[in-house]
Design brief:
185 residues, alpha/beta, 6 helices, 5 strands, 16% strand, elongated
């Protein structure tokens, strides 16, 4: 379970968000998502962070918690969408922007379409599970009843670096643990 959301942003970030061009606001919001992804990494989770923005306020946020919660659907986007819907008191998020560090998977892209999210901003593309532009285009599939406006590649290098560093460290740890197991045999 995510900690209680502080619905108000720091005043300085609110003022900046109101006066920034779209690209600058996307960068500021992505920095918050990156901070959440870093929290996930610190807890041994794949570092993905997400926020939902309505106007100039963050109304939902989350980071991956699959391992901690033993929950296959505990993705950052799902947590952020659920919290945003509770904050607004309804499931339609058509006036909201979801900002996430990694291109959403099929489950999360489907949740965005079902929640009628108005806009998606993401950082790194996902060559194995990306369902927005890389492998599938669920957010803009004409057969579905809603389209999500997509902005891809915001702080892509920072987002990608966070993921690659996490998996490099995990592989090293797995090799070390494997070697120790072999020595015990």
């Amino acid at each position: 379970m995510m900690p209680a959301l502080n619905k108000k942003l720091p005043l300085a970030l609110c003022r900046r968000a109101r006066t920034m061009r779209g690209d600058d606001a996307d960068i500021a919001w992505m920095r918050r998502a990156i901070a959440l992804a870093q929290r996930a990494a610190q807890q041994g989770e794949v570092p993905v962070g997400a926020i939902v923005v309505h106007g100039d306020r963050i109304i939902g946020e989350g980071f991956n918690r699959r391992e901690m919660d033993a929950d296959p659907v505990a993705h950052a986007e799902i947590a952020a969408i659920q919290q945003a819907a509770k904050t607004l008191g309804g499931w339609r998020l058509n006036e909201c922007t979801l900002v996430v560090t990694l291109e959403p998977c099929p489950m999360c892209a489907g949740a965005m379409v079902n929640a009628r999210v108005g806009r998606l901003v993401y950082g790194a593309s996902d060559t194995k599970m990306g369902a927005v532009k890389t492998l599938y285009q669920l957010c803009n599939d004409s057969r579905l009843n809603h389209r999500v406006h997509v902005t891809a590649g915001v702080l892509t290098e920072e987002c990608g670096k966070l993921l690659s560093e996490f998996f490099t460290a995990r592989r090293k740890l797995n090799r070390r643990e494997g070697a120790e197991t072999q020595r015990r045999k």
